[in-house]
Amino acid sequence: MESAGESKRDRILHVLNRLGFGPRPGDFERVSAMGPERYVHEQLHPESIAIPGDLTERVNEYRTIHMSPLALFAEYQRPIMEARRDAKGESGGDKGAIKDATKDARIQQRIVMREAVEARLLRAIEGPRQLQEVMTAFWFNHFNIFAGKGLDNIWTGAFEETAIRPHTMGKFRTLLGATAHHPAMLFYLDNWQNTAPGSAGAKGKFEGINENYARELMELHTLGVNGGYSQADVIALAHILTGWGLPKGGGGGGGGNRRPGGEGMQGAGMLKFFPFGRLMGQRRQGFGRPGAPPVDPSGFYFDAQRHDFSSKNFLGHRIDGGGIAEGEHALDILASSAATATHLSFKLAQYFVADDPPKALVSRMADRYRSTDGEIRAVLETMFTSAEFRDPRYYGGKFKTPYEYVVSCARATGVPVSNYRPLYGTMQILGMPLYGCQTPNGYANTQDAWLNPDAMMTRLSFATALGSGNLPLENPPFEEAADGGAMRREPAVVPRNGGGKVSIKFDPGAHGPKMTPPDPAQLAATLGDYFTPSTANAVEASPTQLRAPLILGSPEFMKR
Amino acid sequence: MQKELQPLDRCARCSAVPATSISRRAFLRRAAILSASGIVLLSPHAWAARSLDASSKRRLIVVFLRGAVDGLNVVVPHGEPAYYDARPTIAIGRMGASDGLVDLDGHFGLHPALAPLQSQWREGTLAFVHACGSPDPTRSHFDAQDFMESGTPGIKSTQDGWLNRTLAVIPGTHGPTEALSLGPTVPRILSGKAPVANIALGRAAERPMPMDRPVIEAAFDRLYSGNDSISRAYRDGREARKRLMSELADDMAQANGGAPSPQGFSDDTDRLARLIGRDPTIRVAFMALGGWDTHVSEGAANGQLAGHLKPLGEGLASLAKSLGPSYQDTVIMVISEFGRTMHENGNGGTDHGHGNVMWVMGGPVKGGKVYGKWPGLSPGNLYQERDLAVTTDFREPIAAVLRSHMEFSDSQIDRVFPGHPRSSGHVDGLIKV
């Protein structure tokens, strides 16, 4: 029989594990003093939680996540294209010469992805607004884009910062709209090419309907796969969204047929028919040039020339031809649909409560969604105050995803991280590279997706390395270039096609000074001294230097 | 008597398949690891409990050439004058010319760098399916590879890969090494419900992990001694890793004993041969090779493409030999996301195209034949007036292998390739019955 003290302790750990990424040193005591109910309330209002000044400063140092898509393009993509064009002319198209010429610019570009990853991890590990961090990860995953696809390499951080993070607990319609207008999403799901056949702007790469975004918008972002829409609705929505895209580089049509002898995937890769690329072409009529159309710095551009202005029937609604307003109307319909309420409630309950969430809870959350016009905070509140969420049978029942496991380990030890590579590298080895999910449905968060023999070996090796102070988390993040030059080596962060080099050495000897090993007693206290007798005995029976690894590698810590 | 088998595997993750080029030696080492990974064990395990009848020994190896290999220069339609017209500097010379192609059937010929595969062609265990590919029109590497790995062209939301589904639809418990991926992380084609062993290559495979140290292992053993799912996964993982590491250590010691010279080739095949026959656990295996995106300076009989084809051909030929009797139970398929333009571009290369050639090799294959329906290369027959057309969906030959080789039922195939197209008849007879 559990004592009242144990029951309160379990509840404190439950909210720290579910509303956040597990306890940091001092969290348990703090929540214990304020009470878990107040903690939940506070987390639901992140603006009420002060952010330490130095954390704000460190986040602001990640300059690129705050830049507009157009500025990112100008600073990090254009130099590659320019170097490429010049080298092509000079070398007569020699592959090696082009590669060499673009190398510096390509390495420079990697800064953008690294900053996005570090800014995410920094706030997940150290940020006091933990629910905000959880919801940012949750909604990014819901509106997943793949950073390995073309320009999303430079836009993913900005997408999260402006389209996801500010809207995580507000009206779902606002969040939906922000993602729908963001160039990163328009590029990832191909809507930038979606064109009314026979329209004035239909030519070349922009010759017809592309249903990709329209389909995922309903299947994944809103209604859900069984949300009651038909293929005719997909086509109607695709027509409604024709012309939602990216700015054109010059006047006239949206692009041209590729010339024979076009470019490959190297360097500017995949940008060969991208309209921004016209900046670099013979017709230099891009942004800021006389006669160019005014461009929204957000990078969103509605091209009326490629829009289908006919009226449509969508989900039983008649939508009259009206340009961009049609798309907004369609988003209203989708956000207010009962199917959307249920789909989102299920996903939230599956993340926060159980792999197979209680149906009654999902239904009450969906009711709250509808009665509040889709206010995410209200739906979360219904869930967090529900009997189901507070039912001890669900405590510690969610198997952590690789992201949650790695972040919770870093939090528990309280180690100051200056080198994030071992963290995101481990996520990649475990099959969950940050921003590296190729498919639009994002990563699963259920046990059957992540528990496997290989993963256990990797998790425990990671736990051992971290727990014994053998992970170079406090090292300077990047090696100096071999030639002693000022430029630092920026390794690629997000792999293409699931490949890419992953090299994390979990064994000692490979690195120089590493980090202060966590103190096992402190670590146990941070985690509320919550261990099963079997774990407690095993830790007790082990040599001191193995105790922290065992705690981080314990079955209890695999779950949240 | 039936063998008890067992996984072995799971070794270090970490670096692996070179993205841009492979050496013959690297390929062979990979192949060796592949053959080494099924090891006969005496200790019974949950996943070894499944009885091994003849059909459960059959295996499928998929080699993905990432970057879109130029199929028109692999299996060359030398009977078409249009081919030579379109490729003034990169066409493969006709038979008889120095460095000319190897004739296959009077209409098609093989790139000379693939001459090592001639014996498989002659003995009838190597076939090709030409004008094969995805029905999806995309020329994006990313999308096309994605579709070819998910097995659902045009549908992006499919989360698992068809090679994983191939295992998942086989009833029973799955051992952790039934699916083997050689490379740094589990690729799209193998992601899914069935467990997948992921093997790093080269030195990374030997890199120690903390879990290899007895004191650490003993400590974690105490934590994971229960019968819950996490404990079971832990024990499977530990067992697999231990066995693979010890096997790899033997393997590497032998390989390093030989001189790093062309003679090392026979060392590799010898080692392979020794390890063959002990390998019934692996049902599917996958590896990817890069470096095929030949936009510039593709070359003809020699050059960039030839430089990549040569080690591939040698590696495949060696694998065929080294598999020994197991070759009779193995089908090896070589696929690539799309073909390349028929016309050579201004840089002595080719750009992203459409139709391609698929390679199918192994004892069960009725080879010595180029399957498919050849659409021709005249302008009117080209896809969008520029590329070899696709007349056979890439899922058709795979489905034929699943049906006749892996003995899958129609409903199992439907689960691997939901909504796959009806058979065109173009690959009838590809697998001996």
Care to describe what's here?
The complex is a heterodimer of chains A (560) and B (433). A two-stranded antiparallel ribbon of chain A has the order 1-2. In chain A, strands 3-4 form a two-stranded antiparallel ribbon. Chain A has a domain at 402-558. Chain A contains 24 helices and four strands. Residues 250-293, 479-488 and 497-501 of chain A have low confidence and may be disordered. Chain A is mostly helical and 560 residues long. Chain B has one domain (24-416): Alkaline Phosphatase, subunit A (3-Layer(aba) Sandwich). Chain B has helices at residues 24-36, 81-86, 118-123, 141-150, 162-168, 202-206, 214-223, 229-257, 264-275, 304-322, 395-404, 410-416, and strands at 59-65, 75-76, 102-103, 109-110, 126-133, 179-182, 197-199, 284-289, 330-336, 356-361, 369-371, 392-393. In chain B, strands 1, 5, 6, 7, 8, 9, 10, 11 and 12 form a nine-stranded mixed beta sheet that branches. Chains A and B meet through helix 11, helix 20, helix 22 and helix 23 of A and helix 4, helix 7 and helix 8 of B.
Helix content of chain A: 40-55%
Strand percent estimate of chain A:
under 5%
Count of beta strands of chain A: 4
Largest sheet of chain A, order of strands side by side?
A: 1-2
Tell me, rounded to a whole number, the average pLDDT of chain B: 78
Question: Overall mean pLDDT score of chain A?
Answer: 86
Structural class of chain A: mainly alpha
Task: Write down the overall geometry of chain B.
Answer: globular
Quickly give the structural class of chain B.
alpha/beta
Domain count of chain B: 1
* Largest sheet entry of chain A: 2 strands, antiparallel
Quote the CATH topology of chain B: Alkaline Phosphatase, subunit A
DSSP strand (E) fraction of chain B? 5-15%
**C-alpha Rg of chain A (nearest Å):** 25 Å
Q: Stretches of chain A where pLDDT falls below 50 for ≥5 residues?
A: 250-293, 479-488, 497-501
Unreliable residue stretches of chain B: 1-52, 254-278
Q: Kindly, what is the distance between the CA atoms of the first and last residues of chain B, rounded to a whole number of angstroms?
A: 25 Å
Specify which chain pair forms the largest interface.
Answer: A-B, 76 and 70 residues
CATH class division of chain B: Alpha Beta
Classify the helix fraction of chain B into a percent range. 25-40%
Gyration radius from CA atoms of chain B, angstroms: 22 Å
